[in-house]
Amino acid sequence: MKIPFLDLTRQYSSIKDEIDSGIDRVVKSGVYIGGEEVNSLEKEIAQYCDTRFGISISSGTDALLASLMAIGIGRDDEVITSPFSFISTAEVILLLGAKPVFVDIEEDTFNINPDLIEQKISKKTKCIIPVHLFGQMADIHRIMKITDQHHLAVIEDAAQAIGASTNGRKAGSIGEAGCFSFFPSKNLGAFGDGGMVVTNNEEVAEKIALIKNHGSARRYHHSLLGFNGRLDAIQAAVLRVKLVHLEGWADRRRENARFYNESLMRCVKVPAISAGIHHVFNQYSILTDRRDELGTYLHSRGISTAIYYPIPLHLQEVFRPLGYREGDFPVAEEVSRKVLSLPIFPELSVEERRYISQEVLAFFGDGDGTG
After folding, report:
1. In the prediction, which pLDDT does 366 show?
2. Of 199, 227, 224, which is closest to residue 213 (Cα–Cα)?
3. Among 139, 249, 287, 370, which residue has the least CB neighbours within 10 Å?
């Protein structure tokens, strides 16, 4: 049996008529940047996230960049974030001349450890970017208490967490702004790059709308420095179709995760879900000391896996000038050595997930994996 890590063709087949109709509508409209599709998507995402405003943008990276620009992050400022994330989280901080200040993670959730944040706050600290990794929100309520005490902004990196919530509050709706990615592999994925910022702050929303359009509200009139971060109408049409199905897809991801948890908990460390958390499982990531051996074995059995992330950010070559060394963030480093993600996409069949579990358990010599 051959099982891909992600199969977007299955998803497309299930909603082909809707997708094709949406794309055809855009093509016939002659409006390919902005327009009704983009405006409607912004409203629908804002409503879905329980926020006042949604601002479409060209990628999750640009969502983070524009959000930091909108709250005035610049040279010599410090922004606290996680060392266990995709590079964009810290990359955008450096691009603005600010300094990423890393705080180690919790092994159980893969998210920033709130207990370690305050010791990293300095007079230069302006913002915290908690990353809601793999579809589970960070402990945002504790983080907000810290930032309220120290008068810091919070930008939520919710790239992998659209639809996730904590105690009924949606990802992206709690901080100054929330940033989503619509990269094709995300739970809500476009047919190319795309992103969205959601916020309840009207001033932030207005600034981001300007920033992503070269600082312009009126053609050839520019009030501030920005860039080309516009979302195209075809992507918006695709995303509007998929948004209707998002909750159902997330339910199937959680069903797959429950099956894996029950089947695999005796041989690997399975994902923990914090109290009050509604997890959307963009990735299903296990921990094992034998990660590389297991990955190789599963590949030989036709099962594709992925490693998110093999090198924590503080040990990446590009961040070497920051002066971090191996051992500075032991939990993130250990997780990077042990983490392995299994297929969890919504269209995964019962037979396929059972086969994956059987093969993981066979590798460890433990049971048949039928759950």
Report:
1. 73
2. 227
3. 370
List the structure tokens of 300.
């030989």
User: Which residue has tokens 């006042």?
Assistant: 52
Question: Global pTM?
Answer: 0.96
Is residue 127 a contact partner of residue 80, using CB atoms and an 8 Å limit? Answer: yes
**pLDDT-above-70 percentage for the chain:** 99
Mean pLDDT of 82-106: 98
Please name the amino acid found at residue 283.
Answer: Q
Look up residue 317 and give its two tokens: 């070559």
SS3 at position 239 = helix
Helix (H) or strand (E) holding 237: helix 233-264
Residue 209 has pLDDT above 80, yes or no: yes
16: how many CB neighbours lie within 10 A of its CB? 10
Number of C-beta neighbours around residue 368 at 10 A: 11
DSSP 186: S
Q: Are strands 99-102 and 125-129 parallel, antiparallel or unpaired?
A: unpaired
Do 195 and 231 meet the contact criterion of CB atoms below 8 Å apart? yes
CA distance 365 to 368: 9
Rg, Å, the chain Cα set: 21
- pLDDT exceeds cutoff 70 at 369: no
The alpha carbon torsion through 209, 211, 213, 216 (nearest 10 deg) reads 90
Helix (H) or strand (E) holding 286: strand 284-287
pLDDT digits (tens, 9 = 90+) for 262-314: 999 999 999 998 889 999 999 999 999 999 999 999 999 999 999 999 999 99
Q: Which residues contact 234 (CB under 8 A, 6 or more apart)?
A: 23, 26, 27, 32, 37, 191
